[in-house]
Design goal:
CRAL-TRIO domain-containing protein; 9% strand; CRAL/TRIO_N_dom; alpha/beta; CRAL/TRIO_N_dom_sf; 12 helices; five-stranded mixed β-sheet; 325 residues; 5 strands; CRAL-TRIO_dom; Helicase, Ruva Protein, domain 3; Phosphatidylinositol Transfer Protein Sec14p; 2 domains
Length: 325
């Protein structure tokens, strides 16, 4: 790291030393003892501009306080059947760890339907996974490896991607904006697998719109990506949809314990048990209420809005082409 970068970190750290409660308390939940690494993430997200990174970080902390994000891991989605419905329609899971110790998150982009609950439940679920990753998984793997591990790997399964994805763009833009503004630079690499033609068509026009640092993180792998992914992780850590040769996947191709999207997978069992345990600790002060945990949605960033519009335009063109044929 160069002198200029270290100067930027020192300047931002001096500014953050000035914040008072309750921002100071929520900042501890963000950095988990890895302050410099956290400052670097926000500096990278703002091209190493200290003033802009400081504003971004303070805005993030205010968002956390205003939306009680520190308490979101004590707010289970109940009843369990509703949570299972969310899991069945918002496909995400932890399949294992890379050989460097980075968590490997699998995301079923193509087969997620987001049609079993309100937007608020999906946003709540997404933020809970983020917070569990940052406050439990990453600190644990950092301790295990004896060094800071503050990012993860994401494997995006495009199996089943259809024109109906248009219906999900608004929700996906909301979730993407929450991540961009409040969880920046948490993904080391995005691996795209099982990409159908429709994805390839969109990717050609979306790729130039991405910032260079984001573009460099995206790798589109052939087929299921198995051979390439085995270079960075063991077979046991591959997402279930990457374990066979070629392309193609299925939401239900494996049993619950193998399918990392499923509520029956160990990751989701541990996550749900953790949230229920945390809720019991808060029960005396505040009884559990049924209903979603509402979080203010940020205005989509200019880049995200442009990308969403471009994808929508390309999908519409694709639809016209198919119907024209």
């Amino acid at each position: 790291m160069g002198v200029a970068s270290q100067d930027a970190i020192d300047q931002l750290r001096a500014l953050m030393d000035l914040v008072s409660e309750p921002l100071r308390a929520t900042f501890q939940n963000v950095h988990q003892g890895y302050i410099n690494e956290t400052l670097v993430r926000f500096l990278k997200a703002r091209e190493w501009n200290v003033s802009k990174a400081h504003k971004m970080l303070v805005d993030c902390l205010n968002w956390r306080v205003q939306n009680e994000i520190d308490n979101i891991l004590s707010k289970p989605i109940i009843p369990p059947d509703l949570y299972r419905a969310v899991r069945d329609s918002q496909l995400i899971g932890l399949s294992g760890y890379s050989r460097e110790g980075l968590p490997v998150f699998a995301i079923g982009v193509g087969l997620s339907t987001f049609d079993k609950a309100s937007v608020h439940y999906y946003v709540q679920s997404h933020i809970q996974v983020n917070e569990y990753r940052d406050r439990v998984i990453l600190p644990n793997t950092s301790k295990k490896h004896g060094r800071p591990i503050t990012t993860s790997v994401k494997v995006l399964d495009m199996t089943g991607l259809k024109l109906s994805a248009l219906n999900q763009i608004k929700l996906l833009t909301i979730i993407s904006s929450i991540d961009d503004l409040n969880y920046p630079e948490k993904t080391n690499t995005y691996y795209i697998v099982n990409a159908p033609y429709i994805f390839s068509a969109c990717w050609k026009v979306v790729k130039p719109l991405l910032q260079e640092r984001t573009r460099k993180k995206v790798q589109v792998l052939p087929g299921s990506g198995r051979d390439e992914l085995l270079k960075i992780m063991d077979y046991a850590c591959l997402p279930h949809f990457c374990r066979k040769e070629g392309s193609g996947s299925s939401r239900h191709m494996d049993s619950g314990s193998e399918n990392c999207y499923s509520l029956d997978h160990p990751f989701h069992q541990e996550l749900y048990d953790y949230i229920r345990q945390q809720s019991r600790l808060h029960e005396a002060a505040e009884p559990i209420k049924q209903g979603s945990f509402h979080v203010d949605f940020p205005e989509p960033q200019a880049e995200g809005s442009e990308i969403a519009k471009t994808i929508e335009s390309e999908l519409n063109k694709f639809n016209l082409k198919i119907n024209g044929d």
